Amino acid sequence: MTALDWPLLLIVAVAAYLVGSLSTAVITARLLGLPDPRSAGSGNPGATNVLRLGGKKAAIVTLVGDLLKGLLPVLVAYVAVDAPMQLVAMGTAGLFAFLGHLFPVFFGFKGGKGVATAAGAILGLAPLIGLIAIVGWASTAAATRYSSLSALFAAVVAATLATFLSPPPIALAISVMALLLIIRHHGNIRRLARGEEPRIGAKSEQADDE
User: Fold this and answer.
1) Which terminus of the chain is more exposed, N or C, with fewer CB under 10 A?
2) pTM score
3) Alpha-carbon distance 95 to 98, whole Å?
């Protein structure tokens, strides 16, 4: 990587981070007159909490928005950056869009768990791996009705497949996202171990979901 490549990657990283910082859950809640998901329900600004607060339509809008803000920066990097920097730029875009969701500069750095944004980024970085991870999430959610367990399973699947099947820049970006996603679910992991994790659709105010 030459000295001229670093400014390009910085631009990609900053742009992707700013896109990721657009909290779809908070914006959707404001537009629909719902409670702020950062302070109501589980306090987590993500699709699962919006489902609890505003129903399926609001949750779908949030989910699609979070997916797109992970996917679009990767696609823009793919189109805008040529080889040999293309894969590095794509990985950078996906990772920083994800970081923007976790720590959004526009919303006090209080973001969600990043499941949907990571899914969108992975779909752009490695479409087949992204589809397999989504199927794994959906299958686990249908079988257990635990959103957190489904996300953890999908993260492990994505990172494992990327390690063996993807070029190093893509594998690294997906693996870092998976690791951060698992770390963000530390509370869920403890509740799963105790048998106290609320299932999808639960109205519990103590839930801490996506």
Assistant:
1) N
2) 0.91
3) 5
